[in-house]
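Worked problem 6 (solution included).
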Amino acid sequence: MLIEVTAVFLNKTEVAHRIGVGRTNVDYIIKTDPTFPKPVQLTPSRPHWLDVAIDAWALARSEMVNQKQERGRAA
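Solution. The predicted structure is:
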């Protein structure tokens, strides 16, 4: 059985929309969060990110926030 996987690349505007922040916040996240996915340079001037990498990062962040909230309630 073959599973076809299609790579979808997102530009900064699409990443911002995908994670629910503005483009400036994407720049801030890139600079301050070492877990944020590294961009792929499809062209010299415009970085792109794999959609699955962005989705995985967002899921990991939401799980981390949920764990912190649960620990806060238990205290």
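Discussion: The first strand starts at residue 9 and ends at 10.
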